[in-house]
Automatic annotation (TrEMBL):
This is MFS-type transporter involved in bile tolerance, Atg22 family. Keywords: Membrane, Transmembrane, Transmembrane helix, Transport. One of its GO terms (cellular component) is plasma membrane. It comes from Thermoclostridium caenicola. GO terms for molecular function: transmembrane transporter activity. SUPFAM superfamilies: MFS general substrate transporter.
Length: 411
């Protein structure tokens, strides 16, 4: 892995820009919208635009990047377009209310922020799948779990910067977190342009020894999503993210009901889990390389289900905190190994397309699961079902995981 460490760290800057941008976006854009729109339902619907665009556009741009080849490379053209333009629109989001002073007879704030949000989300979709596909292009299959662990951890650093430094800057003025993010996005792109060159021939599972049977079926003409192991793997990912996204969306309400906590304290309760997740991402990738991705994914899934069950059965603050730490370990095992398993199923030259599939299923879960759990909470008039719901989703994912076959998932 030492041979590829510097390359992995440079590639991780692309994912760093994504994590940083979404953390700031999700923290402050709802605040801006709630000042313009009274309905929380409409605000929530607007906040799903990024997920909707992910489902629609990321498979397309991932596949398009597979077919692109020019002097800038396969993936870099999409980063060269997507990062600066999305950074530009992102920068102007907190300036949404400045038009009212220029045109006092017209309330243009809502229209302006909607245009900025839609365009920013679209151009983020242009480069996300190609950016993530940089890793499997440049890293041998046997090292992808370790490399992905590093990349996910660097993404976590972006999240922490957004929540800490971004939060401090917001107190000085709402424009400053967005200025920070836009500047760091452009700086990361500059480093990528100066210090990274895409390989002429990307690494791929394209030899007879590396391909699993499912990939060979794909080359003989069976269409991607109709391949059983790929579909089962993507359904596994979908249900994992259904469990995760519901908890991500409703955890503060759960803590308010169970422990009487305010939202700020509830958010801080998640911090140790995030830190544990970051610390365990690279070891999770190493473990996946040594014991096999499938075993590592099953272990991560089992840890999360056990931790969720403990939270359901033992309504204690300390036990909940300990269980969340265990969840961080399990989620790190899953995140380090799931994406490499999907890309390893890709026939030669289709890494971007399969990256798009992966993110389409994660974003679909991000859209569906908060709505589904919200319906459960409304029908039962309780938030206490949150971790039971999450455990059911991860258990369904576990069932689909057992149906996945092939060397890509077992090695």
């Amino acid at each position: 892995m030492r041979k590829y460490l510097a390359k992995t760290l440079i590639i991780s800057l692309a994912f760093f820009t994504i994590s940083l941008a979404w953390s700031i976006y999700n923290s402050y854009v709802p605040v801006f919208l709630s000042g313009l729109i009274k309905s929380s339902t409409i605000v929530g619907a607007i906040m799903t635009i990024d997920n909707l665009f992910g489902v629609i556009f990321q498979p397309f741009f991932g596949r398009l990047s597979d077919r692109t080849k020019n002097r800038f490379g396969r993936r870099m053209p999409f980063l060269l377009v997507g990062i600066p333009i999305s950074a530009l629109f992102f920068f102007f989001i907190p300036w949404y209310d400045r038009l009212d002073s220029l045109f006092p007879r017209h309330n243009l704030s809502l229209a302006f922020i909607m245009v900025l949000v839609i365009l920013m989300n679209f151009f983020m979709s242009v480069y996300r799948a190609p950016a993530v596909a940089l890793m499997p292009d440049a890293i041998p299959p046997s090292l992808r779990s370790r490399a992905n662990g590093i990349i996910v951890a660097i993404g976590g650093v972006g999240t922490i910067i957004a929540l800490t430094l971004g939060g401090s800057l917001y107190k000085l003025g709402k424009i400053y977190p967005f200025m920070l993010d836009s500047g760091l996005m452009l700086l990361a792109l500059l480093v990528l342009v100066l210090f990274y060159r895409e390989p002429e021939t990307p690494f791929a599972a394209d030899s007879d020894e590396e391909k699993d049977g499912d990939a060979r079926e794909g080359e003989r003409g069976r269409k991607g999503l109709f391949r059983p192991s790929l579909l089962f793997m993507l359904l596994t990912v979908f249900f994992w993210f259904c469990g995760f996204e519901a908890i991500n969306s409703f955890f503060t309400l759960f803590c308010k009901e169970r422990f009487g906590m305010n939202p700020g304290d509830a958010t801080q309760m998640m911090a140790p889990m995030v830190l544990t997740f970051m610390v365990c991402c690279y070891p999770g990738g190493v473990l996946g390389s040594k014991m096999g991705r499938k075993r590592a994914l099953l272990l991560g899934n089992a840890l999360i289900v056990a931790a969720f069950l403990g939270i359901v059965l033992i309504p204690d603050y300390t036990w909940t905190t300990i269980s969340l730490l265990i969840c961080g370990v399990g989620w790190a095992l899953i995140n380090a190994n799931a994406y490499p398993a999907v890309t390893q199923m890709a026939p030669a030259g289709q890494t971007g397309r399969y990256t798009g599939y992966y993110y389409a299923f994660t974003f679909a879960a991000s859209i569906a699961s908060p709505i589904l759990y919200g319906l459960v909470a409304d029908l039962t008039k309780r938030q206490g079902w949150l971790f039971l719901y999450g455990g059911v989703m991860f258990s369904i994912g576990l069932l689909f995981m057992f149906m996945v076959r092939g060397k890509a998932i077992s090695e």
